[in-house]
Amino acid sequence: xxxxxxxxxxxxxxxxxxxxxIFGARQTGKSTLVGSLLPPETLVFDLADPGERTRHxxxxxxxxxECRALPSSANGHFVFVDEAxxxxxxxxxxxxxxxxxxxxxxxxxxxxxxxxxxxxxANLLPGRSFYHRLLPLTMAEHPADAPPxxxxxxxxxxxxxxxxxxxxxxxxxxxxxRLAFGDLxxxxxxxxxxxxxxxxxxxxxxxxxxxxxxxxxxxxxxxxRFMRLAAEESGRTVNYAAISKESGVSQPTVKSHxxxxxxxxxxxxxxxxxxxxxxxxxxxxxxLFFDLGVRHAAAGLKATTDVVKTNPGxxxxxxxxxxxxxxxxxxxxGKLFHLRTKDGSEVDFIIERGGTLTPIEVKWSxxxxxxxxxxxxxxxxxxxxxxxxxxxxxxxxxxxxxHDKVTALxxxxx
Length: 414
Prior knowledge:
With 414 residues, the chain is of the alpha/beta class. It folds into two domains: 7-133, Rossmann fold (3-Layer(aba) Sandwich); 175-413, no CATH class. It has helices at 7-13, 30-37, 50-58, 62-68, 89-100, 115-119, 175-181, 185-189, 192-214, 220-232, 240-247, 251-263, 292-298, 305-310, 312-331, 374-382; strands at 19-23, 43-46, 77-82, 105-111, 129-133, 267-272, 286-289, 335-340, 346-353, 356-362, 390-394, 400-403, 406-410. Helix 16 (374-382) links the parallel strand 10 (356-362) and strand 11. Helix 7 crosses helix 13. The longest helix is centred in the middle third of the chain and has 23 residues, at 192-214.
């Protein structure tokens, strides 16, 4: 059992007498983590099992009856529901049971899609629940294959616990391996020869099952064409018109498909930074898939290091953005932006946290130069009161000071 960064936090919060909602994409390790934290006598409902799911869809009262049959416990009896979104009526049952006796049960509900819950108006238990999110592995869980050679300050520090080291990390990996296969726990722990097939299965078999089961789209073929284009364009500013034309679906449908990917935790938006004096700013967001291995598979590519080598720069930029986004999600504070002007001036990522702006450029270079940081310097000059330090994340062997306010940072020091 490898350690998860969120594991200790989740273990502490599960002791609190509330309903716990744990969401995240499939294969991010939700069931494994929760199963390792709950006692063996936990009552488990696995709604990923077709028979179990059908039983509860056919008999909405079965869940409540089985919970009420549990013997009383001084500390509350844990009830774990996996893939809870498959039977939205269970949320109403949980609310009714919890409101009737807040101490008798400890409900833990996992889900991999928020789409059906919102569409059907399912009760998300406001005021009664803790919301948790589990993501693919961060560098704290999945370290670099070699320790940093020099001390460095990260633009977004993400330490293990109270500064302690991870005693049981996932296997270490070099940069090319990360860019090729991504950071899903099951993929990282699998033999390399199996990873591409696991990712292909995730991108289409699991996703198709979810979409078909919940009738989320009318034309699966059109959605596959859209998803392939969205994956190919991942990391770039979204061009709804171009994707609509190439996929053969309307722009409103393209927008709804992007929302569907977000609802299924398959991707996220990086909004355009708007607080700048420049009038030529673009307002279009970027869209990134939540994991690079899944991105490759969704684009119809076989996940290999050779795929990365053909054009590594954009993939490296996406990896940095995904890592920053995951950290911000876990830390629960701050936002991620990008900046681009009509004349091509660009800052890849901007972290806004605690009133401070931290601009970040990403370069594939091993030998960064001050000229690579020109857009960072422009941004720093425009935001002198809120931006104190900028970073250029690259493949240099050690941290380098390019300017009083710009540090070139090796990827493994991120």
